Amino acid sequence: MQTLTGKAAAYKISRRGMLLGTGAIAALGAALGGAGGFKAGHSYGVAKAQVEADVMQISYPIRGTNQPGILTPQQQQMHTAAYTITTDRKESLIRLLKQWTLAAERMMNGELIGQYKTFRDVPPDDTGEADGLGPAALTVTFGFGKTLFVTEDGKDRFGIKHKMPKELAEGIHRMAAEKLDPNHCDGDVVIQVCSEDPMVALHAIHNLTRIGFGTASLKWSQLGYGRTSSTSTAQKTPRNLFGFKDGTNNIKAQDPQSELNQHLWIQPGDTPSDWAVGGSYLCVRKIKQFMEVWDELVLSEQEAIIGRNKITGAPLSGGDEFTQPDFEKKGEDGKPLIPEDSHVAVVHPSHNSGARMLRRGYNYMEGNDKLGRLEGGLFFVAYVRNPQTNFVPVLANMVGDAMTEYLQHVASGLWIIPPGLKDGQDYVGQTLFE
Ligand SMILES: C=CC1=C(C)c2cc3[nH]c(cc4nc(cc5[nH]c(cc1n2)c(C)c5CCC(=O)O)C(CCC(=O)O)=C4C)c(C)c3C=C
Ligand SMILES: [Fe+2]
């Protein structure tokens, strides 16, 4: 096993030593959106190609206080996979976590994960489909499910049950509008891969799954294309499949550290023996959106259901996209301008004991059903410090949400996210096993 090299810089663009930082994605948006004033034709084509090439060179480090892929500027592509650990031997699990960590670091650096072209008489270590593409802002984020700590029949196979936080053990209870497929829920280990390039994301899960053969078997996997949140103020707010701006009032990397500590990162005293300080919880809901029904609602109905203007994203109480909603403000008819059962009113922190979450979801589209209806929706992803205060009650409140009629929750999952890899550590989650 080779040791990890680590990276001191928060992130880098290797080619031409050009640092773009969180503005890189904004620069891409500005150039591609024409905001920078590029004229049509040759110069636009050259600029677009240049920005795309630069984005392919963005790389993030695996080492740090927190894992990458959470507060990292949200990338456009996602491939998330959940695995069943098929061994009962702790040493085999740790060996797998070391191999996964090393492979993740290599791929995040834009490197191949082992010998690829050298020996013609053995299968190459790397599956190869991202050769030459660059790191493309790849992040690999690991999480541990309840069943890694204790199996469904109560077995403590890795001797870590005493380190399972009660917030994970409680899970996510049954909710309104759900028809969950158990084969697509939870999992012993989850790996969330995000990138600006679809092939780079697919390649990472392909390689990691291959490394797991014999120790970890793929339970389910999910592709997401088109982010539905922003995690940095430098990013333009994207839209979801109902056509609304999504991710406006999200936790962002630029928020005060005190706010991030209160709502996002696990703090001392939160988990047994503090093994997960600097970690978080990953809460997932795969939500089918009934687009054909939604698309026939008149614009004002759609806006009343969300509580925001469809074009600008501003709250119906007025202002611009980033004005805070005023739930007291009434219209001429004496009713609140933002309906009480609108999505924004139901999930807003002011109606949920101040609870906030970092949303990091993706649109998905998986063909169509037998009646020709699109099979698509939102792969909802939220990171929180405590799922039982910051996620589950908000989700439960959606029973009174006017949008719920147009949704069906089809999958669900909860995992604890270990902290970032520290110097001297050689696998993600090491503090859990020591
Ligand atoms: C339990 C948490 C949430 C689920 C599930 C959820 C599903 C869901 N949301 C949209 C569309 C929008 N959501 C918006 C805001 C918003 N949503 C949640 C939580 C859940 N959404 C929160 C906490 C917030 C922020 C509320 C606030 O502080 O103002 C918005 C408005 C724009 C924004 O701020 O992002 C939209 C639009 C869909 C379509 C959906 C399920 C498919
Ligand atoms: Fe929402």
TrEMBL record:
Which organism's genome codes for this protein? Boudabousia tangfeifanii
Q: Where in the cell is it found?
A: Cell envelope
What job does this protein perform? Involved in the recovery of exogenous heme iron. Extracts iron from heme while preserving the protoporphyrin ring intact.
The Gene Ontology CC terms held by the record are:
cell envelope; cytosol
The Enzyme Commission number assigned here is 1.11.1.-
Write the protein's name. Deferrochelatase
The record's listing under NCBIfam families reads: Dyp_perox_fam, tat_substr_1
Which positions fall inside the Dyp-type peroxidase N-terminal domain?
67-225
| PANTHER family hit by this protein | DEFERROCHELATASE, DEFERROCHELATASE/PEROXIDASE
* CC cofactor: heme b
Record's keyword terms, sorted: Heme, Iron, Lyase, Metal-binding, Oxidoreductase, Peroxidase, Signal
